[in-house]
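Hi team,

As requested, here is the filled-out complex form for the magnesium ion run. I kept the field names the same as last time so the parser does not choke. Let me know if anything looks off before we queue the next batch.

— J.
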Amino acid sequence: RAKDEGKNQFRVYDVTLNPNAEETIEIKNSLRVALANDEFIVYYQPQIAVDTGQVVGLEALVRWVHPTRGLIPPNDFIPIAEETGLIVPIGERILQLVCNQSRAWQDAGFPPIRIAVNLSARQFAQKDLSQRISSIVGKHRLDPQYIELEITESLVMKEGMQPALHSLREKGFTISIDDFGTQYSSLNYLKLLPVDKIKIDRSFVKGIARDRKDEAIIVAMLLIASRLNLTVIAEGVETVEQLSFLQQNNCHEIQGFIFHKPKPAEQITELLASQSHRKGTVS
Ligand code: C2E
Ligand code: MG
Ligand code: MG
Ligand code: MG
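And here is what came back:
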C-alpha cells in the first residue's frame, strides 16, 4: 500500500516538475506529420545597413503552423527536431521554402536580396551537405552570394566541420557566426575558418546603456571584426540608445524589433516594394 502511494506520488511529482514532458512527446510525434503535411512556414526579419538605413538582408526564421495549436515558435520544436534528427529533412525543406521565395521576389522584379538561413549541427553530419545546399540553390537559379549560412560557435568548433565550410565558402556562400560570444568558444576559429560575418548576440545588446561590461565586450568584438575584415551585425536591437551606441562604434548592420519583427513573406514584399520605389529601381 505504501509502495502504491509512493508510485502515485512519484507520478504526480514528475508531472509537476516537468509540465512540458507530455507536450514534448506530442511534438516529437507530430513533427514527422508536420513535414509530410508541409506545415512549416518561413518568417523573414529585415537586416538594416547602418550607413544607408536600407534593408540589405533578411533572416529566415521558421514557424510551425500547427493544425490545432496555431503558430509554434522555433524554440518550442527546433531543439526536439535536432534531438530526433528530423532537423535534417526539416532544414532542407526550410532552404527550399527560402529559395522559392527568393526566386519569386526576383521574378517579380526586385533586385536580389541576401537571405540568411540557420543551420543546425546535425545537418553538418551529412557528408554531402555542401553539395545538397548548392544543388537546391542552383535548381532555383539563385546566386549563392545571396544565401548566407548562419552557424553557431559550438558547431564551428566541431571536428570535421571545416571541409564542409570551406566547400560552401568556395561555392560563394556567406558564412556567419550566430549568437557570437555566447558559447564555449575560442577566437582561434576566426583565424582558421572561412568566416565572413559575426552576429553580436542579443544578450550583449541588452546591456547597452546599462552594463559597462556588455558595452566593453561589444566594442572589443567590433574592433576584432574590423581588424579581421569581418562584417558585424547586432541582433535584438530594441532601443534608440542601443542603436546609437552601435552606430557610434561602427557596427555595420542592425537586426531587431526597433526596425522590424520577423514577418510573413507578403509583408516583406510590401516593404521591398516601398524601398525599391524610394530608390526608383522598380516601377
Ligand atoms: P537566432 O537565429 O539567433 O534568431 C534570432 C531570434 O531573435 C529570432 O527568434 C528573432 O525573432 C529574435 N529577435 C530578433 N530581434 C529581436 C529583438 O529586437 N528583440 C527580441 N526580444 N527578439 C528578437 P525566433 O524566430 O523565435 O528564433 C529563435 C531561434 O530558433 C533562432 O535564434 C534559431 O536559433 C532557431 N531557428 C529559427 N529558425 C530556424 C531554422 O530555420 N533552422 C534552425 N536550425 N534554427 C532556427
Ligand atoms: Mg540566426
Ligand atoms: Mg542569434
Ligand atoms: Mg539562437
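Two things worth flagging: Confidence is low (pLDDT under 50) at residues 1-16. Residues 59, 118, 150, 178 surround magnesium ion (ligand 2) (CB under 6 Å).

Thanks,
J.
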